[in-house]
What we know:
The chain has 13 helices and 14 strands. With 320 residues, it is α/β, with parallel strands linked by helices. The strands form 3 sheets. Strands 3-2-4-5-7-6-12 form a 7-stranded mixed β-sheet, sandwiched between helices. The chain has a 5-stranded mixed β-sheet with strand order 9-11-10-13-14, sandwiched between helices. Helix 1 (7-17) crosses helix 8, helix 4 (56-68) runs parallel beside helix 6 (87-95) and helix 9 packs across helix 13 (301-316). It is globular and about 60 Å long. 54% of the residues are buried.
Amino acid sequence: MAEKIATREAFGKAIAALSAEYPELVVLDADLAGATKSGEFKKACPERFLDMGIAEANMVGVSAGLATCGKKPFCCSFAMFTAGRAYEQVRNSVAYPHLNVKIVGSHGGLSVGEDGATHQCIEDLSLMRTIPGMMVVNPCDGAEMRAAVKALIEYDGPAYLRLGRSAVETVTKYETGEDTFELGKGVTLRDGKDVTIAATGMMVQLALQAAETLAGEGIDARVLDIHTIKPLDRELILKAAKETGAIVTTEEHNVIGGLGSAVCELLSCHYPVPVIRHGVKDQFGRSGKAGEVLEAYGLTADVIAKCARHAVEKKQGPKE
């Protein structure tokens, strides 16, 4: 049976497990170590863990200072705070001098559930993507998160890593060697010729479910796991556009500024094909159980399948 684990849980376990291998690794948190799971690192090596209190901007500034001393800081809090409240410090203190700081945003998207609109950050990928030189990574499952954490420790430069609150099924095959993780390179989880579904984060699991539904209708859907939104895997996206002729993007994020925007920017310049952006349609979230909130906003496999059908129709042109 496939492992089911929240990516925040996988992050905490991974960074703690790697603490001995990377003595220069330090972790900072803003009084949310239990929620972000950075507390796992604290248990492993408390002398390299700093609880900065509810002072995210200061935490980012301290992380920048540590990076200038040769440390590898992972700076953790809710996405609403690391990407939102501390945006100016991330931009000016970390990204502008291109320091080796990893900004970690937990509880991204609507699946935060009962915490409601103030904490359901649906702008973080967009905010971080627009900062010059900032890498943006959004793993889809526990195995991919573990691979991403190790890769980001070894990557020299600023990056944003998004974590999810809800447990998700493992759909990648890194740990069996069938898939290979590389920052900036997406993964083809399912091949297909009629339409491509490019997904990120927990929407990857739903995209695979949608592809199964479409297969029963005779529509052969390709599913791409786009774990790195910036830099985007241009080669993979362009290949999919040329071979399938239509693309659906799906993300647990505002349709403005995230994966869908990145794909449209690329294709409009190099290979225009019909693209449908699936995600939160420029709305704030609302409080409720995670599954119910996702359904209320159409972030389901059924709606992804509906978007794919529409994309195929657009590719075929208007009916006479």
